[in-house]
Design goal:
single chain, mainly alpha, binds zinc ion
Length: 246
């Protein structure tokens, strides 16, 4: 499958999580950009993917999932309308990025666990252990490939990877109705631990994470303004994962 085919399937499946009458459109285009990015506001909002990926053919599902993580992270920016917020500090920027990671992981899992194309492609009902192997490898590769460089706008890649796992267990807890003996959570956590890439998260980074959490709520309340949701039309059964009501 090429990146173009995968993106088409992702768009079609993600849009199916919305009520048909709202006619929600996720706009993604290949463009001359150096890394994936979101631009514009309201109806001009668009996710841009570097043109060199257009004809990339994936060798395995871990590579596919890496692209899907990127799309899901940018989609989190998109449906939370984070381009509508003007960052006033590094803390704001980092809070937004960590939230796009957290929200993006839940969004991707919603697509994989609920949309037929991805349920079948990743054998979600019969081969979950292979899926989690590919999923965590994809997540890890994304941070190693795209988010490897130190940049003041971004939290460390180790912290972001850790937050990706927290989002995963959060999603699975809701999926399994709070069952503390969830085999899915045990499987996900042991797969995550196997990769052993979180060792470099420092105490300072963990303390920063607390500040990000306070900022996240504040930022989204501002974007929300007087509305009840930032993006309307998510079907009721998916609001617990990707609702934007804050
Ligand atoms: Zn981002």
């Amino acid at each position: 499958m090429t990146a173009t085919n995968l993106i088409e399937k992702y768009i079609e499946n993600f849009e199916s999580l919305f009520e048909p009458h709202v006619e929600f459109k996720l706009k993604i285009d290949f463009c001359e950009v150096s890394s994936p990015v979101i631009r514009g506001k309201d109806s001009d909002m668009k996710i841009l993917i570097p043109k060199m990926y257009e004809d990339v053919e994936f060798e395995d599902h871990a590579k596919e999932l890496m692209l899907l993580f990127i799309l899901a992270h940018e989609t989190a920016h998109y449906i939370n309308k984070l381009t509508h917020h003007k960052d006033t500090s590094v803390l704001d920027s980092r809070a937004i990025e960590i939230w796009a990671d957290f929200f993006g992981c839940k969004l991707l899992l919603t697509v994989c666990f609920y949309c037929d194309f991805f349920i079948n492609r990743y054998q979600m009902r019969t081969n979950l252990s292979v899926f989690f192997d590919n999923y965590y490898n994809g997540l890890n590769n994304m941070f190693d490939t795209y988010y490897n460089k130190e940049h003041k706008k971004y939290p460390s890649k180790h912290l972001r990877y850790q937050v990706g796992h927290t989002a995963t267990t959060s999603f699975l807890t809701i999926l399994d109705n709070g069952n503390l003996c969830s085999s899915k959570i045990i499987l996900a956590t042991s797969t995550f631990a196997k990769l052993k890439t979180t060792a470099n998260v420092t105490d300072k980074e963990f303390r920063e994470l607390i500040s990000y959490i306070f900022n996240i709520k504040h930022i989204h309340k501002q974007i929300l303004g007087g509305n009840t949701e930032i993006t309307y039309g998510v079907k009721p059964e998916y609001k617990k994962y990707i609702g934007t009501d804050y």
